Batch of 2 targets.
Target 1
Amino acid sequence: VNTLLLLETMTSQVDARSRLIELRLAEVEAAVDLIRLLGPDEASGPLAHPDLDSRDTGKSHETTISEEVP
């Protein structure tokens, strides 16, 4: 086993993983910036969330959907 080659390979892998983490972080930060610029895509509030609506009526969201479909 060539120790120097193994060390270089492992160092290269660590560098690649570090770069991947940096790129993923940049992607998440860009997505957050985009959301901040565009604002929310729907009305906020307790009635805007379907799960909260279904809890208020005592029915599950799936039941509401299946009742609407013939």
Note: The chain has two domains: 1-39, 43-70.
Target 2
Amino acid sequence: LTLVPEFYSRLWCVCAAMDMPCDLPQIENGNLAQYYYSFKSYYFPMPKGKKLSYSCIVGYTTERGTQDGRITCTEKGWSPLPQCYSELEHFLAGFPGTYRKRSCITERIKSVFFPSGKCTKPLLENGSFYSTEMDFKIHEELQYKCNPGYHTPSGATEDTVQCRPQGWSFQPSCTKKLGSILHFSPF
């Protein structure tokens, strides 16, 4: 039985995929260092055992109440899940009868405490926005597309971000697509 290079490259792809189960995490109300977004194809998928630090935006903290959190890539994905909670949710968690995460109560209180606001168009490399507006009201959406050869964090060529009281729903980014054909090199 002779194994051809094509077999090796497919075997390598399968093994690499098994050892690298963690893609770029989407962190609502938080971010990784910008270089992870700019060079996504270099860093992700990330192998098991690797750790990442993330930061929550102003007004949000990790479950432990800190501005920064740390996650580890496991065979089941990121652990713990990277999450940022509003400081208001942490406050309400101490009162019986209130919901801690994403409840109607916390959303209503947010709308009272943050009745107005706006978002300024974010920076975007290797892509463009459909709108020429620079400022957006809360709940307005901003659609963007990536230049040829680039893709959004979800792998698409276009995506949409939403202006929220605390800022954009996520940082829009366009990263270079990896080639779909891997070549085998014995040495």
Note: The chain has five helices and 14 strands.
